[in-house]
Specification:
With 590 residues, the chain is α+β, with helices and mostly antiparallel strands. α1 runs antiparallel to α10, α4 runs antiparallel to α6 and α9 packs antiparallel against α10. The protein is globular, with a radius of gyration of 27 Å.
């Protein structure tokens, strides 16, 4: 649902108190005129606010949009009342002028949203209903989704225009309450514009990917967060899904062991010298490592070519997800039955697929078969229309925002629809408004011990042109004797049984320069460092080994231009709460 500012009435109501000041500069007649009109505008905005509040409480998007379409009369009246010649003239007065200008500008922006965002979407409300998104006999009505595209485009443009307009209001001369209200309204409009933009992109790409223009084939990679790779985890199970006219079919499945001959033949596609220096040729030889380079536009074509060599099919795109994504989808579908006789639920999916399965089965082929059966059960439930549409949209949105669900299309024009979204799985971009680190975790143990590792990532400014990145890893692994050899790795790659070796690849923001680094913690093993450059960024690789109960930390100090936002992207783990946050500078100086 599109968020809308909820406090415009407060802004207009406060104009009453400001009219006292007008008595001193414009005379009683003009002040009374503005005061009366401000009161009427406040009434209209309160009415619009009540409508918005009622709409936000509705789960059905179509009903909500139909309700929001009715606020146009109120917002138009409020805009007219705060935009007449007397009001406009008063906006040039000292002190009170900027307050009145902010009110009229906000009212005009809200009216623009009502007329050019809510009204078009309301006209397409029936095509946004849960019924329109529910498969019937295994087929989604992609024509109804495509029909929303023109309205979604208008709404996205109107909301972005309004958000940009409010962002341009100078907050400096505004009174505290008004400044805060404008700030909150701007933030809400930005979020609403982002939501509308997502809706517009969905109306463009979903019909295409679901075969509205002809049959399509997609390779689905299931990542395992118990054995980290940069984009999430090692690829274990693989499936081909075909679409045509809105119908989805599961065509074939495979496990990583099926790609042995492909791996032995050598790299399937060339890698850049920089990527090869950091990751060797493993991402281009082993499907398990196709998610090791932290850019899905690199890994997806590698997996596609591996599948072509294995099955002779050049798919139209590649999608990847993890057990956490499956748990989100299960909240929409409800529990599903597995061939083993048990139920897979939103609450047990992660622990069952990333931990319990290894305790239960020793044979990796049986483990892969279990993964495949779980994925198939969820897929069949979705295709049969057993998912609640609103919950399904929420699940997909959350997985995408957490970078657990990634999408790549071989057709450049189709893929361009996703430009700038988390679904692309691209390296974080640094621009004039933000500086972004990338922190990517990779298992070096050949085990499933990452189920027991927990990362923390924090960024902080240290000065006008200096920032710090703090990365901490903690192991809460149990006694190794209680774990199967397949989980611990059995010491096969030289790592002591029960320990976990992690390669942490830190991609500095574009244009950043490393100034200092320091390590800490209670691990006995000395950390290893390497580095290089990739995709216009300096890269620091930190290798660290943790025994059960140990922790280790890395702190980097970098020089970079000051921007409004500092942050990081990191490998999604089994725990959704393990996301980068702001913190304290670890390199305090005068």
């Amino acid at each position: 649902m599109i968020d809308t500012p909820r406090r415009p009435a407060d802004v207009a109501a406060r104009v009453f108190s400001w009219t006292v000041a007008l008595l001193l500069v414009t005379g009683l007649g003009g002040a009374t005129w503005i005061g009366v009109r401000a009161g009427l505008a406040a009434d209209h905005l309160r009415s619009a606010q009540a409508t918005v509040a009622a709409a936000t409480a509705v789960d059905d998007p179509s009903a909500a949009m139909a309700s929001l379409a009715t606020i146009g009369d109120d917002t138009a009246a409020a805009a007219a009342l705060t935009g007449d010649p007397v009001w406009r003239a008063a906006t040039h007065l000292p002190w009170v002028g900027p307050q009145l200008a902010a009110v009229s500008r906000s009212a005009a922006a809200l009216d623009d949203v009502a007329a050019h965002a809510f009204a078009p979407l309301a006209a397409s409300a029936s095509d946004l209903s849960p019924a329109a998104l529910t498969p019937v006999d295994g087929t989604i009505d992609v024509a109804r989704i495509a029909a929303v595209e023109p309205a979604a485009a208008l709404a996205a443009a109107a909301l972005r225009r309004a958000a940009d307009d409010l962002s341009g209001i100078d907050r400096a001369p505004l009174l505290g309450d008004l400044a805060r209200t404008v700030e909150q309204s701007t933030a809400l409009l930005i979020r609403a514009a982002d939501s509308a933009d997502s809706l517009h992109r969905a109306t463009e790409i979903v019909p295409t990917m679901f075969g509205a223009d002809g049959p399509r084939s997609y390779l689905v990679l299931f990542q395992n967060n118990a054995e980290w790779r940069s984009l999430g985890g090692v690829v274990g199970a693989v499936a081909q899904v075909d679409t045509a006219g809105g119908r989805i079919s599961l065509v074939s499945q495979a496990s990583s062991s099926d790609f042995t001959d492909v791996a032995e033949a050598g790299p399937v596609l060339p890698l850049t010298d920089e990527d090869r220096a950091l990751f060797d040729t493993r991402p281009a030889r082993f499907v398990q490592n196709s998610t090791q380079i932290p850019d899905f536009s690199v890994g997806a074509p590698l997996a596609r070519e591996m599948w072509r060599r294995l099955h002779g099919v050049s798919v139209d795109g590649v999608v990847t997800l993890d057990p956490v994504t499956l748990s989100y989808l299960l909240r929409a579908t409800g529990p599903v039955a597995l061939p083993s006789g048990e139920e897979l639920t939103a609450d047990n999916a992660v622990s069952l697929l990333l931990d319990e399965v290894y305790r239960r089965y020793d044979d990796p082929d049986v483990q892969d078969a279990f993964f495949q059966s779980a994925a198939t059960a969820v897929f069949q439930s979705l295709a049969a229309g057993r998912a609640d549409p609103t919950a399904l949209i929420s699940a997909v949105t959350r997985a995408g925002e957490e970078r657990r669900l990634l999408v790549w299309n071989a057709d450049a024009e189709t893929q361009a629809i996703l430009d700038g979204t988390p679904l692309q799985g691209a390296l974080p971009a640094t621009d004039a408004t933000r500086s972004m680190f990338g922190v990517y975790l990779n298992d070096g143990t050949g085990s499933k011990m990452d189920y027991y590792l927990h990362p923390e990532v924090e960024t902080a400014w240290c000065g006008p042109d200096r920032a710090s990145l703090h990365v901490e890893l903690r192991s809460d692994a149990p006694d190794p004797a209680s774990l199967p050899a397949y989980v611990t790795g059995g010491g096969e790659y030289g790592v002591p049984v029960g320990d976990a070796l992690t390669g942490v690849y830190v991609y500095l923001p574009e244009g950043a320069r490393l100034l200092d680094r320091q390590t800490g913690g209670d691990t006995a093993a000395a950390p290893g460092f390497a580095g290089g450059t990739a995709h216009g960024r300096e890269v620091v690789k930190w290798s660290v080994t943790l025994s059960p109960g140990q922790r280790a930390q890395l702190d980097l100090e970098v020089q970079l231009p000051r921007t409004a936002e500092l942050g990081a992207h990191a490998t999604p783990t089994r725990d959704p709460s393990e996301i980068p946050r702001g913190g304290e500078c670890r390199f305090p100086r005068g």
